[in-house]
Amino acid sequence: RITRIFEDLQGHESQSGLSQDTFVELLARHKALLLRSDEDQDPWSVDDFAQTIEGLQLARYEYVGGAAPRRLIPVKASVEVFTANEAPPDQLIPFHHELAQVADPPQYIFFFCDLPSDTGGETALIDSTLVYRFVADNYPEFMEMLKAHGARYKRTLPAEDDKESPIGRSFYNAYQVDNKIDLERKLDKIAGLEYEWQPEGSLTVITEPIPAVRMIEQQHDHAIYQWTFHNSVIAAFLGWQDSRNDRMNAVCFGNNDPMDPKVLDEIAKFMDNNKVSYQWKRGDVFALNNRLVMHSRNAFTGPRRVFAAMFGDALPSNQVKRDGVGQIVKDFSALTVSDPTTFGMWRLTDPEETVYQAIRAGYRRFDSACDYGNEEATGRGIARAIAEGIVTREELYITTKLWNTYHDPVHVPIALERCLKDLGLDYVDEFLIHFPISMEFVPFEDKYPPEWSNLDGEMVLVKNDINATWKAMEGLVYNSKTKHIGISNFNCQHIRQVISVARIRPTSLQIECHPHLSQAKLIRFAREAGIRVSSFSCLGGASYISLDMATANDLLFENAIILEICRIHKKTAAQVMLRWAIQRNTIPINKSSSGARMRENRKVFDFYLTKEEMKAIDSLNKNHRYNDPGHFCEDGMGTFCPIYE
After folding, report:
1. Cα–Cα dist 526/531, whole Å
2. Are 37 and 14 in contact (CB under 8 A)?
3. Which of 295, 394, 294, 377 shows the shortest CA–CA distance to 338?
């Protein structure tokens, strides 16, 4: 039985076995799980625990640099299980990410209860993103220092394990060596680390600056995109106290500036007030995503045996993955981006100023198109930001699109050259086929952009092999005019047609997608082919009201379900819908003319939606499409042109 600790502590879901893929997805989505045998079964033994985690095929993690003394527990499995922190029972172990004071902390942490204590002893948990948001909202200068400089930790280690201290692990055990010469060699290899031998034989270590705030982007193709308070700052400030160590000197900023103890106290109070404490039962297992969850240990009375195991990432799977035409897919790198927030250039009043302000607000991905009719102004805004040193060209990701009148392979490179000229760029990062609709060619010098009609005001469809168009797109990559190529407004069968012949596979599919049009099957189809999905109109029909393609009744900003979720998270409707899009593994395209709203719409990495909240928004789907050529082409141009049926 599996319980989502942060979302539904009183409930559980039955699970027959736990595969690596299922485990990784659950920990990416829900952060912390309680695993327990069914009520009609005996509690797990430590060997059951060890064999279960062995079957998950996770990378071994070497426990180097930890403060807590531990003992290995013999188990009938080829994994390392050891005692949890054996600090005296009357001492609270403060919140921390396991080994956050080292450069590469473990990915997954497990705790197993072999014997619960008489009272207390809970392994309390807190969502690290929740802590990040508290600090960022209430102590922004402190947060900026953490982001800029990280943290350094100072600890004096004894020559032998000191079981009376919560940080009494010896320097031999902490660094997995058996002599001082090997220890010094290991420490000397760590750039920025300082150490000093004390007269009585102990060793004082001051770590190199360690990142203290981390953006967790994706884990095995599962979108996370959350800031975390990923450090051991509070653990050091509250808990690194013994005969050798003074907790008030245990941590500082990475530039050696001191941290304000009043701020640290307030953070610790927030953690204590918002923690999830679960009373252990024999045989219980906690599975934690150590990149997203902080844990602690409450004081206790009576005997208590809780064991732990820690691992790196999931080992590569031997499972063969195929796309929608049966081809083996090996490259899924397109699914991962560093920042999914994308600014759209469609229907802007002042595109030059808007793109400039969007860059100042932090946007680095921009979605443009020939058909938007504003690429010259867009290019001027980009050039201005680059000239002022706000950003470099290499830091931007610029997408533009091939219009319907240029599908003939002869016209494809000419069309991109015109986009590059207007944008003032030598290359774009991505060039998409805008629609799977081929129309009569309109000369550039006669009408640009040609929009949906020829010089006679008519929309004329023409025969064209879209595969030939794709081959011409591939030539643009070979000629370094674009780094990637992709498709837009394509359905599953359109995608099958392209990937059946592609030498260079599409990296991206752009589609209309919002709570009224969730497109779950299409998203899955594309991603299983290694194609990432970006979503336009991700906030619904608001942009279409002035075009008479939507009504006020279509506005999602006033939907009761979304407004209730806004209330819970203290977020706007736009932020909630953007977050929903991100957690569905899509890249949402949004826009605003307001600098404040631009920045607000990027604040979607300091909260996440629960399984129930995601399902509630999913329930709004009614397969309603606002941008549908099957409707507006006939209404506006007199040409019936369905593409989605």
Report:
1. 5
2. no
3. 394
Q: How many CB atoms lie within 10 A of CB 176?
A: 13
CA dihedral 352, 357, 362, 364 (to 10 degrees): 0
Percent of the chain past pLDDT 70, that is, above it, reads: 100
Across residues 458-474, what is the average pLDDT? 97
pLDDT number for residue 66: 74
Segment of 99-113, 408-422, 539-553 carrying the highest mean pLDDT: 408-422
Please state, in angstroms and rounded to a whole number, the distance separating the CA atoms of residues 6 and 613.
13
User: Where on the phi/psi map is residue 468: left (φ > 0), alpha (ψ -120 to 50), or beta?
Assistant: alpha
Residue 256 gets the label, from left (phi > 0), alpha (psi -120 to 50) or beta, of left
CA 562 to chain centre: 22
Q: Check if 63 is active-site.
A: no
The 8-class DSSP code of residue 114 comes to E
Q: How confident is the model at residue 17 (pLDDT cuts 50, 70, 90)?
A: confident
Residue 520 and residue 642: Cα distance in Å, rounded? Answer: 20
Set 153, 175, 225, 372: catalytic member? 372
Q: Residues 402, 468: contact at Cβ < 8 Å?
A: no
Three-class DSSP category at 2: strand
Q: Is 131 left (phi over 0), alpha (psi -120 to 50) or beta?
A: alpha
Say yes or no to pLDDT of 69 above 80.
no
Instruction: Please tell me the least confidently modeled range out of 67-76, 254-263, 340-349, 529-538.
Output: 67-76
**Chain segment 348-365, per-residue pLDDT in tens:** 999 999 999 999 999 999
Rg (CA), the chain: 28
Residues 6+ apart with CB under 8 A from 546: none
Instruction: Please give the model's pTM, rounded to 2 decimal places.
Output: 0.94
Alpha helices per DSSP H over 14-139:
20-30, 46-54, 128-138
Instruction: Write the secondary structure of 496-541 as one string of H (helix), E (strand) and C (coil).
Output: HHHHCCCCCCCCEEEEECECCECCHHHHHHHHHCCCEEEEECCCCC
| DSSP state, residue 544 | G
Using DSSP's 3-state secondary structure scheme, residue 431 falls into strand
Contact of 152 with 256, CB cutoff 8 Å: yes
Distances (CA, A) of 619 to 26, 486, 534, 582, 622: 21, 30, 21, 17, 8
Q: What is the mean pLDDT of residues 443-450?
A: 97
- pLDDT tens-place string over residues 27-62: 999 999 999 888 788 999 999 999 999 999 999 998
End-to-end CA distance of the chain: 42
Calculate ∠ Cα 606-609-613, nearest 5°. Answer: 155
Q: What angle do CA 427, 430, 434 make, to 5 degrees?
A: 120
16 burial via Cβ count (<10 Å: 0-12, 13-18, 19+): exposed
Closest CA to 583 of 292, 225, 126: 225
Q: What is the largest CA-CA distance in the chain?
A: 93
Cα atoms in the Cβ-side hemisphere of radius 13 Å centred on 35:
21
Q: CA–CA separation, 210 vs 216, rounded Å?
A: 16
- Do the beta carbons of residue 348 and residue 374 sit within 8 Å? yes
Q: Taking a C-beta distance cutoff of 8 angstroms, is the pair 469, 435 a contact?
A: no
Q: Two tokens at 312?
A: 């790196």
Contacts of 490 (CB under 8 A, 6+ apart): 433, 436, 498, 509, 511
